[in-house]
Design a protein that fits this description.
single chain, mainly alpha
Amino acid sequence: MRKFVKEIIILVVQSAVFYLVPLFGMTDNPMGMVLLIVLLTLGLSLILGAVSKEKIKYLYPVIISVLFIPSVFIYYNETALVHAIWYLVVSLVGFRASLGLPLKDALRYFTFIFIQFYSLYRILLLYRHHHRFLSEKLRKLLPVEDL
């Protein structure tokens, strides 16, 4: 059991991501919450692939997708079961990308990816806000009568 300490710590953090992040991000911005969970899953899989030397690390993507399934019935509805496949693929990509990398490089890649996704998310959020604002202004300027 002592030889799996790194893997257990990463799995505990991942389960906290699946079960605690929806408590705080569900009402305000659900898409931001999903993006945050995906990015944290990618980052944790990058870290696991870089630091773990045990063979159990190859089961990590499957364990992650199975770990997500109970949270579907707690926070979401059955249509969110497809997210388990997303987390399987994301963790598999991150895990595979970090095999053989030192931890410093894996963290650097994760930081770069996180900044890129966060920038894209902020741009989309800003666009949605301006689109809503402009459409309200246009409705006031050009009233459309009901037929």
